[in-house]
């Protein structure tokens, strides 16, 4: 029982970070039909901005995190939208998919060449003390990660549903033409989406790197997990991505302990295939019209 | 087919015949791997360029082919039987994967194949008793046909060339047949294609399965070429590489995958002086190419050719009308 609680808590903590990446992924899809195959690298990169701020520029940790946020907003948000997505949207989804695959490769290899191929230790933001709750060891770091990610996603939900800008963003995602007619600046709303995605990626990066260490290849698994979480939960719902992320985190940890460490990575994939077979719109998603 | 095309193709084949003569082993090896990656990329081009589906498991299908061929030839079964089984199994797996994925929205095949490639990698790595785990399999011999051995690199090159030409001819025939023309109809205007009685799902599924079978053949050739196979040669990154080959060359063009495979395989040699920066330069080039010419290098060539010698157009204003 104690072991189960322990697994659930660390699973939820990891899952909430996956959810951050998955939410950003769904937002981009809704706003601009961009399937971002570089999403994992988007989460990998900000940690290195923080490390550059701390080791190269000698800044304190929180200033470095702020620097990383600004850089991410500029590079992963504005530049990504202006230079890659915008010129390619008229050509349809496929060239964009290829371009994001190439972008992921570019980011990964650049970090490897310019910063280093080894895993870098990353400063912990939260104390790493472990408490004993009813026989289960629960780390403060896990709880803090869970709380921060939940706050970020909850705040995003409130922003999208309760503010005028948020509702304009939703309108632009659902029907850009009508939104435009009603006076919504659709291009700006799409840009906001890209900025939000970059910010979510930065938060996820700062939360996950103390656990997994900062490594150029982190994006491979993270990106895959973000896709799976987004599809399992429902491609067109933020709630869905949240549930998907948490579920994957828990399943991942459970299968590592109870099934087989070798096939740990296979469980989320099997879940993905099962979901696509049985409930293609995702657990919480609403069916979209068939395109083929 | 234009007047010059048969002559050009004959010249191309002649060039392929003389290319390896007098070359060192390394260059012949590179040419062989170009031929087999062209076969795999050709198959992917059918899925991607003609049926409009993204498959991220082409390297996985190569893996299926390579492992089946390796296991069978190690047990003394002739290569040709092993290759046939490899092709058929890749086709069958393609059908099994594609059937559920194509029931739903169009981008789902990409995700299912992505998951499949990763799963396959895990199985190949973990089932050590059969696949040799991360140490892989060694000791597969090159096949002998009617007493002629393909042990020397030059002989193996000609053997690969024959396979490549057969595969290319099969692809040419598929695309020329009424059934293949249906793909083009499907890609250009799926709604109209369906209204003319084409079964869209069945067509797309078959395109994907046939494309996968080409991957199986490429894998069956890789085993005797490298004579050593291990799981990481068939990891997801190689599927992405194959996808890039097709798109860089020009998806939906018959010669696109060959060109793309040449670029992807030869570019590392040409960019060797840049050492580790090769992948950075390469991926940056792909992004730029996608932004300027989503149809790849062949598309870029056509664009330039049209600038020099504009295509005859009766009325440009009609084009706008059709779009509306």
From TrEMBL, chain A:
Keywords on record: Amino-acid transport, Cell membrane, Membrane, Transmembrane, Transmembrane helix, Transport
Superkingdom of the source species: Bacteria
Transmembrane segments: 7-31, 43-76, 88-107, 140-160, 190-212, 224-251, 263-282
Any single Pfam family the record assigns to this protein: BPD_transp_2
Mode of membrane association: Multi-pass membrane protein
Cell compartment(s), UniProt: Cell membrane
Primary location: membrane
UniProt record similarity statement: Belongs to the binding-protein-dependent transport system permease family. LivHM subfamily.
Record's protein name: Branched-chain amino acid ABC transporter permease
Native species: Mycoplana rhizolycopersici
Upper lineage: Bacteria, Pseudomonadati, Pseudomonadota, Alphaproteobacteria, Hyphomicrobiales
TrEMBL record, chain B:
Protein's membrane topology: Multi-pass membrane protein
InterPro entries reported for this sequence: ABC_transp_permease, LivM-like
Pfam family, one: BPD_transp_2
Subcellular location: Cell membrane
Alphabetically ordered keywords of this record: Cell membrane, Membrane, Transmembrane, Transmembrane helix
GTP-binding is among the record's keywords: no
PANTHER family hit by this protein: HIGH-AFFINITY BRANCHED-CHAIN AMINO ACID TRANSPORT SYSTEM PERMEASE, HIGH-AFFINITY BRANCHED-CHAIN AMINO ACID TRANSPORT SYSTEM PERMEASE PROTEIN LIVM
Protein name stated in the entry: Branched-chain amino acid ABC transporter permease
Organism: Mycoplana rhizolycopersici
């Amino acid at each position: 029982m104690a072991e189960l609680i322990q697994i659930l808590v660390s699973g939820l903590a990891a899952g909430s970070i996956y959810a951050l990446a998955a939410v950003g992924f769904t937002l981009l899809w809704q706003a601009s039909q961009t399937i971002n195959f570089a999403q994992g690298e988007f989460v990998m990169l900000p940690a290195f901005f923080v490390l550059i701020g701390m080791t190269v520029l000698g800044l304190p940790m929180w200033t470095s995190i702020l620097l990383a946020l600004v850089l991410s907003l500029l590079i992963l948000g504005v530049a990504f939208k202006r230079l890659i997505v915008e010129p390619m949207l008229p050509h349809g989804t496929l060239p964009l998919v290829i371009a994001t695959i190439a972008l992921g490769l570019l980011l990964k290899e650049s970090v490897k060449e310019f910063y280093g191929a080894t895993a870098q230790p990353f400063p912990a933001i939260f104390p790493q003390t472990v408490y004993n709750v009813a026989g289960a060891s629960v780390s403060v770091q896990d709880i803090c990660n869970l709380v921060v990610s939940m706050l970020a996603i909850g705040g995003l939900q409130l922003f999208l549903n309760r503010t005028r800008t948020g509702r304009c963003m939703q309108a632009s995602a659902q029907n850009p033409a009508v939104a435009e007619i009603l006076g919504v600046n659709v291009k700006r709303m799409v840009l906001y989406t890209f900025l939000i995605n970059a910010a979510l990626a930065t938060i996820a990066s700062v939360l996950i790197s103390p656990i997994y260490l900062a490594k150029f290849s982190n994006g491979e698994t993270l990106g895959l997990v973000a896709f799976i979480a987004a599809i399992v939960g429902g491609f067109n719902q933020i709630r869905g991505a949240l549930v998907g992320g948490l579920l994957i985190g828990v399943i991942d940890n459970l299968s590592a302990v109870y099934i087989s460490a070798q096939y740990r990575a296979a469980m989320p994939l099997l879940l993905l295939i099962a979901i696509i077979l049985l409930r293609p719109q995702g657990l919480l998603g609403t069916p979209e019209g068939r395109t083929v | 087919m234009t007047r010059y095309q048969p002559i050009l193709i004959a010249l191309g084949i002649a060039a392929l015949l003389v290319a390896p003569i007098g070359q060192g082993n390394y260059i012949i090896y590179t040419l062989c791997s170009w031929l087999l990656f062209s076969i795999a990329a050709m198959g992917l081009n059918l899925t991607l360029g003609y049926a409009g589906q993204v498959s991220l498991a082409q390297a996985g299908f190569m893996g299926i082919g390579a492992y089946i061929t390796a296991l069978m030839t190690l047990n003394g079964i002739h290569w040709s039987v092993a290759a046939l089984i490899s092709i058929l199994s890749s086709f069958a797996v393609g059908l099994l994967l594609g059937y559920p994925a194509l029931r739903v929205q169009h981008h789902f095949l990409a995700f299912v194949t992505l998951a499949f490639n990763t799963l396959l990698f895990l199985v190949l790595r973990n089932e050590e008793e059969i696949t040799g785990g991360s140490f892989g399999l060694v000791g597969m011999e090159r096949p002998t046909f009617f007493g002629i051995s393909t042990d020397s690199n030059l002989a193996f090159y000609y053997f690969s060339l024959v396979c490549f030409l057969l595969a290319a001819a099969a692809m040419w025939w598929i695309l020329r047949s009424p059934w293949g023309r249906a793909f083009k109809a499907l890609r250009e205007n799926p709604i109209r294609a369906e209204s003319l009685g084409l079964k869209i799902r069945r067509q797309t599924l078959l395109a994907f399965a046939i494309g996968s079978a080409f991957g199986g053949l490429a894998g069956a050739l890789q085993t005797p070429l490298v004579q050593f196979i291990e799981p990481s040669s068939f990891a997801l990154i190689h599927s992405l590489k194959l996808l890039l080959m097709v798109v860089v060359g020009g998806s939906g063009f018959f010669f696109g995958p060959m060109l793309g495979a040449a670029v992807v395989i030869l570019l590392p040699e040409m960019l060797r002086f840049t050492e580790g920066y090769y992948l950075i330069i390469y991926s940056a080039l792909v992004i730029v190419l996608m932004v300027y010419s989503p149809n790849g290098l062949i598309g870029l060539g056509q664009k330039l050719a049209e600038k020099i010698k504009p295509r005859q157009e009766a009325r440009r204003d009609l084009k706008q009308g059709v779009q509306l």
